[in-house]
Amino acid sequence: MIKIDSNHSSNVFHFFLNRDYISIADAKGVYLYDVQGNKYIDASGGPILCNLGHGIDEMAKIIGDQAKKLAYVHRIDFTNPPLEEAAKKICMASDYAMEKVFFVSGGTEAVEIGVKIARKYHLDNCKPSKIHVISRWQSYHGSTAGALAWSGSTSRRSDFLPYLQNFTHIPPAYCYRCWFNKMPETCNLECADALENEIMCIGPDNVSVFLAEPVSGMSLCGAVPKKGYFERIREICDKFDVLLMFDEVMTGMGRTGKMFGYEHFNVVPDILALGKGLGGGYFPIGAVAVPEYIHKKIADNSGMFGAGHSWGGNPLGCAVVSKTIDYLDEHNLVEQSNRMGEYLDHKLQDLYSHPLVGNIRGIGLMRGIEFVENKETKKPLDPKFSFSARLAAECLKRGMFIEYAGGCDRGQSGDMIMFGPPFIITKPQIDKAVDILRQALGEDLLSTDSDVLTF
Questions:
Q1: Could you tell me if 215 and 261 are in contact, meaning their C-beta atoms sit under 8 angstroms apart?
Q2: Given CA atoms 201, 205, 207, 209 in this order, what sign does their dihedral have?
Q3: Sheet strands side by side (includes 400-401)
Q4: Predicted pLDDT at 7
Q5: Which of 50, 93, 265, 290 could link 230 by a cystine bridge, Cβ 3.0 to 4.6 Å?
Q6: Is the domain defined by 24-55+332-441 classed in CATH 3.90.1150.10?
Q7: Per CATH, which fold does 59-330 belong to?
């Protein structure tokens, strides 16, 4: 047996290499507990992931029971009952708008597989020149080379640009900082029409898929498109035989107050990528769901889709997916996400009185706040202050974990935080979380005397 030397420095290659990390030893409900017993409200559910809440005995039991029965079988050679059941439940949850599901190990992989499905569809539709992916600036789709190339988050891309293929990005649907200098009441959906312009410039015969988050994740912290945006996008995609793919890694499985984010926008995507909350916070798993016509085109032609990884469709993960969907239904947690999201938004509105709070936005339990130096001009805070990172650090000192992000002003500056707690959060817990944020905002965070690390 290998003996651990507790006095030795950590052997973990952390995200921040020079930070002292708090060690979380336990979690229950919406709370995290460190090794000293200190308690923190998990106001962001990790990275907007722990939808069900922590420490649920039923979720632990399903993993243990399935591990004893069948822990692994290779998806290429066999199917298995949990795989079949999980796929069926996802399709049922979509009211059969989606009819086939390909399981993977996480959200980034789901995005990659979704784009590969689009490629295979066009190949089997005798349109091999359709290879180009169009996405949006200020988006984030994952950290692998393909997903990062399609992402529009400049800070995440910058270190790895030499490895990224040069795909196209159009302006985001970001009403607070409209790239066309429009207000919502005068907007003609220029940000949607930018897709048609880009398709025409590349050539319609060369464009495979348009990839977008229905509600922006951490790169824009809950930015919701104007009404009609995705209807226009759908029309443009149909006009040029371009598949519409929604990255619902964050928005899917109830986060927005509906099971899937696309349900808010009167459109159905051709490809749906899922992850994060798909496992409820209990297992790393993702999936790609498609309507029958996508699957049928491939099945009736080449009859094979040669992509994926060894752990895709494993019985453990699929058992957790089925249990997650059941748990959401049995405890009415999607509706709870909607109700608590509205209450959270109501409580956050009071923060507009703070001189640095520029915009509060979002839907369901996915609520972002953007901070600015000047509310009238929307001038961002100087990046030297690392404001959002310091704010998150102050919240942690007071007993709340909150996700933060920067770069919303075209990747050059900007400060945001995002609330995305487990759906089981209560009104008193929301009151406490907002109060902690209010206290933290009362600190002098606009100084450069800090060693807070940012990303």
A1: yes
A2: positive
A3: 24-28, 31-34, 39-42, 400-401
A4: 72
A5: 265
A6: yes
A7: Aspartate Aminotransferase; domain 2 (3.40.640)
Coil, helix or strand at residue 288: strand
C-alpha 26: how far from chain center: 24
Neighbouring C-alpha atoms within 13 Å toward the C-beta of 380: 22
Identify whether the C-beta of residue 81 lies closer than 8 Å to the C-beta of residue 362: no
Q: How far is CA 321 from each of CA 217, 327, 379, rounded to the nearest angstrom?
A: 22, 10, 43
Within 10 angstroms of residue 431's Cβ, the number of other Cβ atoms is: 13
| Residue ranges with strand state E in 213-303 | 243-248, 271-274, 286-290
Q: How many CA atoms lie within 13 A of 172 on its CB side?
A: 27
So what's the pLDDT on residue 450?
53
DSSP bridge partners of 367: 362, 419
In tens, the pLDDT along 161-177 reads 999 998 999 999 999 99
List the chain domain ranges.
24-55+332-441, 59-330
Q: Give me the sheet containing 132-136, strands edge to edge.
A: 100-104, 286-290, 271-274, 243-248, 207-212, 132-136, 168-170
Read off the tokens for 157.
Answer: 């891309």
Structure tokens at 239: 């006009």
Nearest to 251 by CA among 212, 291, 193, 304: 212
Per-residue pLDDT of 261-299, as tens digits, reads: 999 999 999 999 999 999 999 999 999 999 999 999 999
The three-class DSSP label of residue 383 is helix
**pLDDT under 70: residue ranges of the chain:** 2-4, 6, 448-455
